[in-house]
Amino acid sequence: METPGSQSSLHRANLERVVRAVRMAGSLTQAEIARSTGLSAATVSNIVRELKDGGTVEVTPTSAGGRRARSVSLSGDAGIVVGVDFGHSHLRVAVGNLAHQVLAEQAEPIDVDASAAEGFDRAEQLVSRLVEATGIEAGKVIGVGLGVPGPIDVESGTLGSTAILPGWSGTNPADELTGRLGVPVYVDNDANLGALGELVWGSGRGAADLAYIKVASGVGAGLVISGQIYRGPGGTAGEIGHITLDEAGPVCRCGNRGCLETFTAARYVLPLLQPSHGPDLTMARVVQLAREGDPGCRRVIADVGRHIGSGVANLCNLLNPSRVVLGGDLAEAGELVLGPIRESVSRYAIPSAARQLGLVPGTLGGRAEVLGALALVLSEMGDSTLLDGAQGVESAAIA
User: Fold this and answer.
1) Three-state DSSP state, 84
2) Model confidence over 149-174: pLDDT tens digits?
3) Taking the CB of residue 6, how many other CB atoms lie within 10 A of it?
4) 76: closest CA among 57, 60, 48, 52?
């Protein structure tokens, strides 16, 4: 056994720091590893050499700042991870390796509200099909990230809001999918996964504090504080859709009146335009028409932006994030929605917080949540399995 404070335990800890840094970033140069871990360049060089010899990492030539460098990433043979995203009308699955490369991805329509059992059946089938398509053995799957469009109780892991997913009430999505796939499953709501996806792959890269705002059938925010998703003790942090804008406003599905969601979510916004634009109107179509100059759609998009801006201003006053990323179909509206959001932020947020805020559209579109599910596995999985494959490293669990 390793003795705390011994040379072997210190070496093990340094190995873990390097592997964790590479695992979270996808790939790093040795200089970047040294900066992010605080280890000396010589120590990093020795550890990378050891991990490369053991088959844990791969090293490829690259350049940084015009100089030759070596890029370090986890080995393609180290394992694969799976992301599963349930939307209200779709199921999307992605398979990726530990170097942050997406190997296979597919989406298909599904009525998630109808039946949890049917949703899990479809997810199991699609995961199996995509893993097989990669040509990698199913036994190489290390874990699955699962996104659902509703709040997860942190203690029990169950979905409890019947108003959001009536067919899923009381289910434990992680346990259900673990039983079917036989690997660890990590679950979170779609807004948190959208935040993770944009943080790792999209518009949130480089930001330590950000909020990801998703406006769809509901409205939610994924909050990143000091580089970590903040969920709150009950798992309901980020329910920005239920900020009260008008106490005499429409009744919300949560039972209150005048929530932000009742002024911005698709289920409340589309009926405003359907009499003039037809019953099959979608938010994606509204955005498209607004970009083409339709005056009614432009007005609705601007109104939605101003209301979202009120919620963002509250976030600025409370959390002072450095960046807000707008996701979902609305992000495609560009300045048609971002301009009104900035207008409200400027009006209602503390001036210093408003000045420091960067407001940007998401770059991942509908893929943000499934890529966030991959990132969730990469952030939650331990390093021992990876390290124990290296030569000369004794098996030990991470404390």
Assistant:
1) strand
2) 877 877 788 876 555 566 777 789 99
3) 11
4) 57
